[in-house]
């Protein structure tokens, strides 16, 4: 390969890596194309392995693996790009003692330690221009790696907040209909307001956190009480039932209901970028059988209004599947610990 070709390939690879790193860490719009591709590929490997082994706990390690792979990918791209640039001229790197041009392996070694330090002194730039460039990549490399590592630190705090929010939603009820039945006082669902108050802010924050830290979506929890997506789905379905089937006079106040619904919409929008298109997904059936059995008077929803929610409910189903859950699982018990007797809450 001719030397100018090395320079062009190196510059392109370096620009691509720097752009992906800066876009992912600073732009609150999701992951860069490289980071997104690597994350999605690793997640698919984990989900296929989980299904083959019929063990969801396999997915618990996906988040950490994706973080490590993302950091490694950025370092490798920066390292490879700079190495190609140093391959573009024979005198770019020389032995400090003999001034003999460095070999390929020696250039890889030279670039590696220059990206993180000022070097060991056994090799140097062969000309004044390459000496200056070596100093530049030492500083820029250290800055880029520091940015990458610093970007990952807040993720642990964000994961903790997500678990806390999930438990809060799960405590409302085991399913969409149970969330409503537990807050039915015989006349209306006004008691649900106490659960919805203050819920819009953490939901909206989670949506923005998923945009700022796309890797958050890959931190999987096999326990339903701390798994956010199944609980988000149950809550969203509960609000859908309220809006479609329950007369306005029997619902929680609009001042409480609408902000939570809008926050849920924002959260779902933040996940569209990493989820396969839901167009081919079959819309789940509307189920209000438990409410009907309880004797609650429901209204017949308009077909036109129901059709407008088709995309939303398809997206929810697609998100659940992508996250390793089946649709019906969001309606199963969330708290199954043997530390408490669940029968104590009945009656």
From TrEMBL:
Name this polypeptide is given: Potassium channel domain-containing protein
Origin organism lineage: Bacteria, Pseudomonadati, Bacteroidota, Cytophagia, Cytophagales
Keywords: Membrane, Transmembrane, Transmembrane helix
Organism expressing this protein natively: Pontibacter korlensis
Membrane-crossing residue ranges in chain numbering: 6-23, 58-80, 130-153
